[in-house]
Amino acid sequence: MKDKKMTADIDLETVLKKGSLSTEIEHERAIVLQRQLRLLEKEHPELGVKRKELRTLIKGYEDKYWTGENISEELIVKSDAAEILVEKERQFLARRKDLIRVKLKELSLSQKQFGIILGHSSATYVSELINGICAFSIRDLVLIHAMLKIDFNDLIPTSAIETEKEKVVATVHEVKPNLKINEDTLELVCA
User: Fold this and answer.
1) In the predicted model, is pLDDT for residue 10 greater than 80?
2) How far apart (Å, rounded) are the C-alpha atoms in residues 148 and 107?
3) Residues 143 and 67 reside in one and the same domain
4) Domain that residue 175 falls in
5) N or C: which end of the chain has fewer CB within 10 A?
């Protein structure tokens, strides 16, 4: 059984279970996932169903927010910012995938064998994890760090924190007004 995920990774199952997209960041992430699924579908045809479901969610979002009079300057600004953030996430995931694959190659381990070591029996699921389609659990990331000696900074994406900064800063000011917070790094400092 998979343990609960505390992660900033994009997670296809979470997106599909939600059944809709509600923000520009979700929309941009869905577009990236859909492209990745299209490429992976050649090796894993069973991913075609998920890709079609995701495409339906993307179309629904675009029909709701990106048609006619709905397109505002604010929406365009949000879309541009989301596109930049999601591209950073995509680059991070590509680098992480490359680091893992290099280490596996050095050890003469296949993705499937490594997945079994991590406790995952499905080759498709392991491919989804390594390709960033599904999120690694914290357990997986700790084991990857320990076994492959990949730095946590290269395993755990932090770019999604950018979307949370305003909320965290406001909450800190509300919960403990005399506590100072660095609005860039989110470091808490005694007043």
Assistant:
1) no
2) 9
3) yes
4) 158-191
5) N
